[in-house]
Amino acid sequence: MRFVDEFRDPEVVTRTAEEIRRLADPGRHYRFMEVCGGHTHAIYRFGLKDILPANIELIHGPGCPVCVLPMGRIDDGLILAQQPDVIFAAFGDMMRVPGTQGSPLEHKARGMDVRIVYSPSDALKLAKTNPDKHVMFFAIGFETTAPSSALTLIRAKAESIRNFSLFCNHVTIIPAIRAILDSPDMRLDAFIGPGHVSTVIGCRPYEWIAQDEGKPIVISGFEPLDILQSIVMVLRQLQAGKAKVENQYKRVVSWEGNRAALRAMAEVFQLRPYFEWRGLGFISQSALRIRDNYAECDSERRFSVPGVRVTDPKAAQCGEVLKGVLKPAQCKLFGRECTPEHPVGALMVSSEGSCAAYYNYEHRKAMATSLAWPA
Amino acid sequence: MAGLKPEAAPPDAAPRVRFRDPQIEMAHGAGGIASRRLIEGLFAPLLFGSANQPLGDSAALKIAGARLAITTDCFVVKPLSFPGGSIGELAVNGTLNDLAVSGARPESIVATFVLEAGLPTEVLEAEVRAMAEAARRAGITIVGGDTKVVEHGQADRMYITTTGVGPFLEGVHVDPRTVRPADQVLLSGPIGDHGITILLARGELDLEADLRSDTRSIFPLVEAMAQAAAPGVRWMRDPTRGGVATALNELARDCRLGIHLSEESIPVRDSVRGACELLGLDPLHIANEGQFLAVVAPEYAEMALNALHQTDGGEEAVMIGEVHQQPAGSVLITREYGGSRIIDMLVGDPLPRIC
């Protein structure tokens, strides 16, 4: 299959892994953060840790939109959807995310009209085919998904579709990276930059990471070779004592980003003064709200939002894991109270969440290995 | 999955119900972890007397000296028809296949229809014809049935339950507890066709692919393999809901051994791979209706594979892995470049109601 197989070629993967071993200074411990949950998922799925030298530590970043969404927002959305004649539409990723009264899927089993859609425009289609219902699209995602939300609202307005609204939980990636870098317990050597987000925002918004913070950042694709090559590029920068923004994912990401997508976002959205991130707390100017021109499509203004605040269970250490301070398995609940089937924290829900990825692909392997070599 | 244990014993005096989920969710019917918890925690202790026996595709009955396999399966697929098949064809093939992978020769089935008032007769007739044709092709008889009609809105068009019986094949004894390290894992052909076809046939995605459900009777393949390698065939399963990963995880747990697969050896058509890449699904979790997995003793593996290759529809059969001691109870997938991952049973329900 084109655009996939050539990036998984075992021979080239092996050669690239050897190059990484050559470039990595054995006397040094490297800490690289992969910002994007898609990378976390790929790293586990393709077993990349098995072929990296032990002194390269990959730390999972905050780039999983489901994981950083506070539980109160899910409660808010589900409470709105309990009104008569409301259809709750969301991406499949949202379906098992627990609110205090259960996940959307559990609400569906109790009778709520919950639909899985693959894009916001599918939700708009639902509104057209169900004119006597109100369709609320529970929007999540970074700049990756925000443009499609924006275009959908532009179309809803143009076509005067009144039974559709969007519950906006879109967040932006740069403030999250800044929050990570501001965290005092964080010592990172470099970043593997997010691929999908960068297709929209381009590479320029990361320049401060290299210039002001002195950290290399390489925007990376999602195939095994993409990630390995990005690690090579980061190591070369470190070896040369440089820090710059590099683009490994050139086949998709341009330096300037996608201008049409950015224009659509600017037309529909503006920055919120602040927004709560699960595990990271309130971050200023880190999320999007719908502009006044589109107020009619804004669930938060169409309905009165309860504004539920939910504190995470004390024992759950999602924040520390999200910031990379703890490894998933170091959380007290990991694999016991908190499993992919019964997630306590959001990092265990999404397949892009570091806990779920670690649990699905590594946890039992680690357990089996420890059984094979009893202490 | 029939969810019946072999050699059913009378229920215990005080069965232990361990199923604690407060209500039934879609995942309990999806064939993954939740389904297994429901069967082992509620059905098995109350109905089958013990939850400790491995759950097979059929139950074994001894009636007047004859050993018969019996299985039952309910079909609620949506949409009713899709490229390559329809609910009627599935209802026959699915039950035949459960018998086949239990090592039995399908002989007869009975069918129950639950129909929603208002269902057009032509839809029903088409499905009954599809059942008759599938039975004729497989050389089995449909010997009886029952019909219930529920009010409009109380069911989704039509559901079909089929129950099949047949005698066990001579010399074939499949039981996960007989699986040993070094045994080979065989797969009859490419995976994921059925699940992805259904997903696309629902029309909820703007995706198109030239893809057909793989629904068929696999008995001819099982029979050919049994004739060539019966003493070496230790376990078989048709990886329907939950896919290859779920079937092999169940095996790993039942035999307490590790199943090692080589990622590159598992056949997946490009259209299925493409859809899975786009939708973030794993082909190993996608349902099949015309493939089966077998674990065969190493000295019989080549014979079994050759027999499959020489049978119509078995040309694409491959060896995909091997049984090891570790990681006990898990399925480990290795890539050619050395990376590996554990793959678990399906959690939740990516594609509701696909069979």
Short description:
The complex is a heterodimer of chains A (375) and B (355). By secondary structure, chain A is of the alpha/beta class. Chain A contains 14 helices and 13 strands.
Observed structural traits:
heterodimer, A: 375 residues, alpha/beta, Rossmann fold, 5-stranded parallel sheet, 14 helices, globular, B: 355 residues, alpha+beta, 60s Ribosomal Protein L30, Chain: A, Phosphoribosyl-aminoimidazole Synthetase, Chain A, domain 2, 2 domains, disordered N terminus
Verbal overview:
The complex is a heterodimer of chains A (375) and B (355). Chain A folds into 3 domains: 5-61 and 174-194 and 209-239, Rossmann fold, CATH 3.40.50; 71-173 and 257-302, Rossmann fold (3-Layer(aba) Sandwich); 318-362, no CATH class. Helices cover 37% and strands 17% of the residues of chain A. Chain A has helices at 10-23, 37-45, 71-81, 104-109, 120-129, 146-158, 173-182, 195-201, 207-211, 224-239, 259-268, 299-302, 318-322, 354-372; strands at residues 30-36, 56-63, 86-90, 114-116, 134-141, 164-170, 190-193, 217-219, 245-247, 269-271, 274-277, 281-284, 288-290. Chain A has a 5-stranded parallel β-sheet. In chain A, strands 4-3-5-6 form a 4-stranded parallel β-sheet, sandwiched between helices. The termini of chain A are far apart. Chain B has 355 residues and is of the alpha+beta class. Chain B has 2 domains: 74-93 and 106-167, 60s Ribosomal Protein L30, Chain: A; 176-342, PurM-like C-terminal domain (Phosphoribosyl-aminoimidazole Synthetase, Chain A, domain 2), CATH 3.90.650. Chain B is 29% helix and 23% strand. In chain B, the strands form 3 sheets. A 7-stranded mixed β-sheet of chain B has the order 9-11-8-12-10-13-14. Chain B has a 5-stranded mixed β-sheet with strand order 1-2-7-5-6, covered by helices on one side. Chain B has a two-stranded antiparallel ribbon with strand order 3-4. In chain B, a hairpin with a 5-residue loop joins strand 13 (331-334) and strand 14. In chain B, helix 2 (87-101) runs parallel beside helix 3 (121-138) and helix 5 packs across helix 8. Chain B starts with 32 loop residues before the first helix and ends in a 13-residue tail after the last strand. The A-B interface holds A 1, 4, 8, 10-11, 13-14, 17, 44-51, 92, 95-96, 105-106, 108-110, 117-118, 122, 224, 340-341, 351, 360-365, 367-369, 371-372 and B 23-27, 33-34, 204-205, 258, 264, 270, 273-274, 277, 279-280, 326-330, 332, 334-344, 347-348, 350.
